[in-house]
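Quick one:
INPUT:
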């Protein structure tokens, strides 16, 4: 798609660190928005509110999709990875879901939160298909944004404390989040994506998105392989 060849916007990238009351492993958050004023406002809001999180927070922000793709790539030793990315749905010439798909194909560890000033239904299906875990309204997401980040951060902290395992293909698997484990459990009960969505209060597209993330984490190609692995490892 050629996004990686774009240059980062001069003067649009900022990095800041906020110390939380309790510092476990650091939490690195990225923000991608083509509107520089909105980007600055969201960054400042997140900096001021992130003190309530129980991890040391580092924030980077940019107007450039290419820069965001690069920043989300995990380094060779696993350090400085971007764990959470906030991404606007309408970027210059491309959409947030398009960029999210590129990022997750290269950096499946990154959890992506979508944001938009438009009606959420405009992007909901495309966002879910791309692997974006949730979509928030910019006009009202103040406290809701931090609640979402806090929940994701807690799940990641729990996952990081669990020992990784290796599947039959020699792939080092990544621990599943609480939501992913719930989807696995319901899937083992022979429920469809639509039925699982109804049980969990999410859409079938969101369930499908979580299933794709589960397959990436387990290093398998099909959902049947994922289910077989979860049964054999007693994951749920």
């Amino acid at each position: 798609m050629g996004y990686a060849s774009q240059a980062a916007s001069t003067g649009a990238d900022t990095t800041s660190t906020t110390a939380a009351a309790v510092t476990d492993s650091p939490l690195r958050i990225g923000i991608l928005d083509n509107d520089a004023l909105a980007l600055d406002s969201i960054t400042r809001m997140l900096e001021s509110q992130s003190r309530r999180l129980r991890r040391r927070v580092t924030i980077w922000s940019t107007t450039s999709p290419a820069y965001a793709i690069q920043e989300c790539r995990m380094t060779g030793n696993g350090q400085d990875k971007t764990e959470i990315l906030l991404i606007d749905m309408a970027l210059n010439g491309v959409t947030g879901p398009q960029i999210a798909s590129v990022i997750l194909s290269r950096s499946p560890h990154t959890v992506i939160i979508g944001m938009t000033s438009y009606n959420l239904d405009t992007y909901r299906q495309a966002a879910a298909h791309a692997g974006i875990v949730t979509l928030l309204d910019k006009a009202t997401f103040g406290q809701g944004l931090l609640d979402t980040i806090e929940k994701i951060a807690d799940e990641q902290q729990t996952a990081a404390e669990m020992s990784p395992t290796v599947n039959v293909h020699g792939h080092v698997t990544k621990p599943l989040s609480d939501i992913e484990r719930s989807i696995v459990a319901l899937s083992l009960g022979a429920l469809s994506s639509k039925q699982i969505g109804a049980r969990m209060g999410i859409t079938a597209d969101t369930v499908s998105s979580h299933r794709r993330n589960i397959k990436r984490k387990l290093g398998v190609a099909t959902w049947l392989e994922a289910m077989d692995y979860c049964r054999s490892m007693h994951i749920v």
